[in-house]
Structure formats: C-alpha cells, structure tokens
C-alpha cells in the first residue's frame, strides 16, 4: 500500500509539472475554455450544421442541380464565362444502336436531362432562363441549410428574409430591391448578395405579384424601350442577382 501511494504521488507530481510547463500563460487559455462552455450550451442543430458543400447529407441530385443553376449567374454577377460541356461530334454523328432522337432521350439519365434544361441559352442580359429557384419539402429536410451552404460555396453573401413576416407588399418590394441591387459593405470581402426568401408559401398574393413583377416586368420594359439611352436606364432595375425561395407546401 505504501509503495502504491508513493507511485501515485510521483505520477501526480510529474503530471502537475508537465501541465505547468505546457501552459506558462494561464490567461491565454481562458478563451478556449469559454468557447468550449459556449459550445456545450448551443443546440446540436447549430453545432453540427453543415458548413461546406461536402458536408451536406441531403439529396445529391438536388444539391448539384441547385449549384449548377447558381453557377449560371457567374456571367452576370462575376463576369465569368461558363464552361459549357460540348459533346463530341463523333458521338452525335453515330447515335447508339442507330436509334431515332426520340428514343435516345429515353436512355439519358435524370441528371443529364436536367443539365440540358439548365444549360438553355441565356437571355440578352446573360442571365439564366429561370430567375428563381424554389426548394419545397417538409420541415427539417435541410432546405434552408442547403441554400445557405451552396450560396456561400458559390461566393455569395447570403441575405435571408422571411416572406410571412413582411406582410406589406411595399416592404416586401423594398427588401427585395435592397438585397438584389445593393452590395454588402459590412464584411471585409465585398461579395454579391444572394437573396433567400423563406416561407414563401406564407406570403400574401400581393407580395407574390411584386416578386413576379420584379422578375418579368423589367424585361418587357427593357425590350419595349426605344433608344439606347432609355434602354440603359431600364436595365438599371433588372434583376441581376439570384433568388432562392423556400416553402413547405408547393
């Protein structure tokens, strides 16, 4: 018993000496301890939420489609030309099994068909054909998390608004225009905004009409404007930023 007590006392002294030499500045170790304490009190959904595209556990097909649609805005937002995959001419000249074109489409995968739809020609302002993406599904599916992660992955500053909170069409229009036309200047890196409208199914009909006017009406006015100067003024109000809408009931 005496030998055991002596051995334990020696181990205690060794451990105390090692910890004292590893942490000569106890004041600097207070911050990580505070962070650990704050981490213990946060919700698990916040602590383990995905922060990168590779950490997403949602449907990979949906993730890829949303990311591909968001990358179609690169020409307008970032001034980048999208690298569109072109099939080899030899493959087009020799279709498999010498089948007609209608039967060839049956053999294409769901991903290939969706990519062909998304890679449709851009409009005159280099914007994609579909200006708004809609994510729908039951609560807890990860729709908001998916929108945030993919927007950050594509290089955007996320601006989120709740459609059910802003019941007034005037406030709804003001917030949409502010998010899609103004730049983020608070952060160190000025990134373009990507607007995420949550609970779009709770918005009144007047607010939905405001959103539709922002998407479509400006195009019609820009096409109908006569003269280059007038057209340039019209283009100032065009929707030049992506909008992602989220709802539970499509």
From TrEMBL:
Gene3D superfamilies: P-loop containing nucleotide triphosphate hydrolases (3.40.50.300). The keyword Nuclease does not apply. GO terms for molecular function: ATP binding; ATP hydrolysis activity; DNA binding. Its main location: nucleus. It is found in: Nucleus. GO terms for cellular component: nucleus. One of its GO terms (biological process) is DNA replication. The keyword Disulfide bond does not apply. Residues 1-37, 87-106 are annotated as: Disordered. InterPro entries: AAA+_ATPase, ATPase_AAA_core, CTF18-RFC_complex, P-loop_NTPase. Residues 129-241 form the AAA+ ATPase domain. Residues 1-26 have a biased composition (Polar residues). Keywords: ATP-binding, Cell cycle, DNA replication, DNA-binding, Nucleotide-binding, Nucleus. Belongs to the activator 1 small subunits family. CTF18 subfamily. PANTHER family: P-LOOP CONTAINING NUCLEOSIDE TRIPHOSPHATE HYDROLASES SUPERFAMILY PROTEIN. This is CTF18 protein. It comes from Pampusana beccarii (Western bronze ground-dove).
């Amino acid at each position: 018993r005496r030998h055991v007590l002596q051995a334990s006392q020696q181990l205690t002294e060794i451990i105390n000496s090692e910890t004292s030499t590893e942490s000569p500045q106890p004041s600097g170790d207070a911050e990580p301890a505070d962070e650990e304490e704050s981490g213990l009190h946060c919700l698990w959904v916040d602590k383990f939420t995905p922060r990168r595209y590779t950490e997403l556990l949602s449907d990979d097909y949906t993730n890829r489609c949303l990311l591909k649609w968001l990358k179609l805005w690169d020409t307008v937002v970032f001034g980048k030309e999208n690298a569109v995959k072109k099939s080899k001419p030899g493959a087009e000249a020799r279709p498999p099994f010498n089948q007609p074109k209608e039967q060839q489409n049956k053999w294409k995968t769901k991903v290939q068909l969706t990519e062909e739809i998304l890679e449709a020609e851009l409009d005159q302002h280099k914007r994609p054909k579909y200006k708004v993406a809609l994510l729908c599904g039951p609560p807890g599916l990860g729709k908001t998390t998916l929108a945030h992660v993919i927007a950050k992955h594509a290089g955007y500053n996320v601006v989120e608004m709740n459609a059910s909170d802003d019941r007034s069409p005037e406030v709804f229009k003001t917030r949409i225009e502010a998010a899609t036309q103004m730049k983020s200047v608070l952060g160190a890196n000025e990134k373009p905004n990507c607007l995420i409208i949550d609970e779009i199914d709770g918005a009144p009909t007047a607010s939905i009409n405001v959103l539709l006017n922002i998407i479509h009406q400006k195009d019609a006015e820009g096409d109908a404007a006569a003269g280059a100067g007038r057209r340039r003024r019209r283009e100032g109000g065009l929707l030049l930023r992506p909008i992602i809408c989220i709802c539970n009931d499509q």
